[in-house]
Specification:
Number of helices: 5
Order of helices and strands: EHEEEEEEHHEHEEHEEE
CATH superfamily: Fumarylacetoacetase-like, C-terminal domain
Bound molecules: zinc ion
CATH architecture: Alpha-Beta Complex
Oligomer: single chain
CATH class: Alpha Beta
CATH topology: Fumarylacetoacetate hydrolase, domain 2
Helix content: 10-25%
Structural class: alpha+beta
Radius of gyration: 16 Å
Number of domains: 1
Distance between the termini: 27 Å
Length: 203
């Protein structure tokens, strides 16, 4: 099972980190040991003092595909859920400055909490999906899938040009603005529309 993530897919978030809006999707991956399921707690790693939450819609691949055409790409996922792309921002900034890969800052153990999924249909995708993150009861991030620079279909088509997609593969589709540092005892809650999909306590 593979986990892909899209960086800089919401204009306001790219801006808040001082990044240009990309011409092509920015893709990176996380190993399966990054997954955190069943609302398990997240333990802050000892190599960072600045781990940020990034709430993201996650699509689950339901069919094997390679070089998928964009017009058919929505047929390759049938569930959407919510996940957090935890990022060691201090480490990522050091790596970025040296032009090095982001894996250490993005792919560490527990860096990919994953919540529940809902079934997708084409009208849901067309109308856009609202999602949000509460930290200790206050909304800190909110977005709508229609604000994505690259649509679900574009992402699936793009990724499948390089990597064969298989059943169960996950794609974290990018985070809206509002990322910030998490601290011990923070309680994170992710919502799709008004439905609680994910809870994660920071330890
Ligand atoms: Zn992210």
């Amino acid at each position: 099972m593979k986990i892909f993530c899209v960086g800089r897919n919401y204009g306001e978030h790219a801006k808040e980190l001082g990044n240009a809006v990309p011409e092509n999707p920015v893709i990176f991956s996380k190993p399966d040991t990054a997954l955190l399921k069943n609302n398990d707690p997240f333990y802050l790693p000892d190599f960072s003092n600045d781990v940020h939450h990034e709430i993201e819609l996650v699509i689950k691949i339901c069919k094997t595909g390679k070089k998928i055409e964009e017009q058919f790409a929505n047929n390759y996922f049938n569930e959407i859920g919510l996940g957090i792309d935890f990022t060691a921002r201090d480490l990522q900034s050091q790596l970025k400055a040296k032009g090095l890969p982001w894996e250490l800052a993005k792919g560490f153990d527990g860096s990919a909490p994953l919540g529940n999924f809902i079934s997708v249909n084409s009208s849901l995708v067309e109308n856009g999906i609202n999602f949000s993150l509460k930290k200790n009861g206050t909304i800190v991030q909110q977005g709508n899938s229609n604000e994505m620079i690259f649509s679900f279909a574009k992402i699936v088509a793009f990724v499948s040009n390089y990597f064969t997609l298989k059943v169960g593969d996950l794609i974290y589709t990018g985070t809206p603005a509002g990322v910030s540092k998490v601290s011990i005892d923070d309680k994170l809650e992710g919502f799709i529309e008004t439905e609680l999909m994910l809870t994660c306590e920071v330890k």
